[in-house]
Amino acid sequence: GAVVSQHPSRVICKSGTSVKIECRSLDFQATTMFWYRQFPKQSLMLMATSNEGSKATYEQGVEKDKFLINHASLTLSTLTVTSAHPEDSSFYICSARGGWYNNEQFFGPGTRLTVL
Amino acid sequence: KQEVTQIPAALSVPEGENLVLNCSFTDSAIYNLQWFRQDPGKGLTSLLLIQSSQREQTSGRLNASLDKSSGRSTLYIAASQPGDSATYLCAVPQGGSEKLVFGKGTKLTVNP
Asked: How high is the pLDDT of residue B109?
């Protein structure tokens, strides 16, 4: 149980375009989802926390107008990187908790974003 | 603000050796601690979760201990195998919240 998927696993885009990343909880209802970013050889850094049906809470220094998060259902959250630039290139990982699995976060496989 | 440090940053051992990875955290008011494994270019796999009331947890060849008062945890890997090669991350909650703070990880290489 407690499987989280992400799509796509890898995306390459041109500077200035927008990219949407999906995070799904496959076998449980995720009342809370988290989005992390990981730069090479660095730790995971929390970007934002989203609760189903409400606005996401962003960490200090994360631009909410650039990283749009939607958590419209109990199994799906999306992260849209708007007007992406090369410095946005990173590994984006989501996690989810809820239902029977409310005491820990389960992580997706990550999405590698490369902005040219 | 919670800070997590992992030592060593990298470790290379021959197959079969027992090893210990270390994790320290600055705010001891945590309700749990997790150890994860991350393979290159992949997401995180949860290995062990220790509740604050526990002193250790075991899963197969892995044993994690937690000393809350000193702000330390160790991950012991017995009889290491090449398949254990990965980066191991520990994470603790920020204050009493659900937000996780991660260490930078220990990159383990087990040589056949």
From this structure: 98
